[in-house]
Specification:
two-stranded antiparallel ribbon, alpha/beta, about 45% helix, TIM Barrel
Length: about 270
């Protein structure tokens, strides 16, 4: 499995840094850490860019020997078709989607129908569609969508933290979704009880400094043989100022990506 970085490793820096953290900054991070993959998510929405910006980004990535993966949210037939076209322009072979968008929450049956209709286009484009576990759907429902779609061009983007929002832990989610996982999003968190003892708070931590069973998840997904890339993301806890928050995020990304590279290399040896 290749190691890569996603734009959601920089959820604060994208859109808030004084010096814009854009696709070129993402590529610079990838080059500095000798990564093979970058994934643009919906915080850098490539479908809103002019053609010249798409072409420049694609040239820069390919010149550096870095593969591009795309990501979006709101899985409708029209939006999927738009992103398949963008995959062709960028040479992307993996397209990750979050099902929901503002005021749009498709049912599992809706998703299955959309994907079945898209199978010829996915096959023609040579693109694998990865549906991310993202809060609303339990893992079993996502598995049924993939199985009912019935195509090798569709699988799961397994995020190590998102299913906490659906009340499910990583070990249980991995048991259900690892055989269908074609893309892995890695972030670590710490879960601690609030001082009043009436609940918990979930906060992001640099990889290896949280509580999630990251090494076991990577190895379990690797054994299934379908996942092509492990992508670093992060939930950086805010600091008193935005400047401090972004500094913490950037420092945490440097620590986390080296940890991720070591974990993947150890599993491959």
């Amino acid at each position: 499995m290749a190691v890569g970085v996603g734009s959601f490793a920089f959820g604060w820096a994208v859109g808030h840094a004084q010096l814009p953290f854009d696709e070129h900054a993402l590529l610079a991070f990838a080059r500095r850490h000798a990564l093979r993959v970058v994934q643009l998510a919906d915080n850098l929405p490539i479908h809103t860019w002019p053609a010249e910006r798409v072409e420049r980004f694609t040239r820069e990535a390919h010149a550096a020997g870095i593969s591009i993966e795309l990501g979006a949210r709101g899985l409708t037939e029209a939006h999927l078709a738009q992103y398949l076209s963008l995959c062709g322009r960028c040479g992307a072979r993996l397209l990750r989607f979050v099902a929901d968008a503002d005021l749009y929450e498709p049912s599992p049956d809706d998703l299955t129908a959309i994907i079945r209709n898209a199978v010829p286009a996915l096959a023609a484009a040579g693109v694998t569609l990865a549906l991310e576990n993202h809060d609303r759907f339990p893992a079993a429902a996502l598995r049924r969508v993939v199985e009912n779609a019935g195509t090798p061009h569709f699988g799961i983007c397994l995020d190590t933290a998102n299913s906490l929002g659906a009340g499910e832990g990583l070990a249980a989610v991995t048991e259900i979704l690892a055989p269908l996982t074609v893309n892995l999003h890695v972030k670590d968190v710490r879960i601690r009880r609030l001082p009043h003892m009436m609940g918990f708070i979930v906060e992001g931590r640099p990889l290896g400094q949280g509580q999630l069973p990251i090494p076991e998840t990577i190895e379990r997904v690797r054994r299934q043989g379908r996942c092509t890339a492990v992508i670093l993301e992060a939930w950086t806890a805010p600091r008193p100022t935005m400047k401090e928050t972004i500094e913490q995020e950037l420092a945490g990304a440097d620590i986390s990506i080296e940890q991720l590279k070591a974990l993947v290399a150890a599993g491959a040896s």
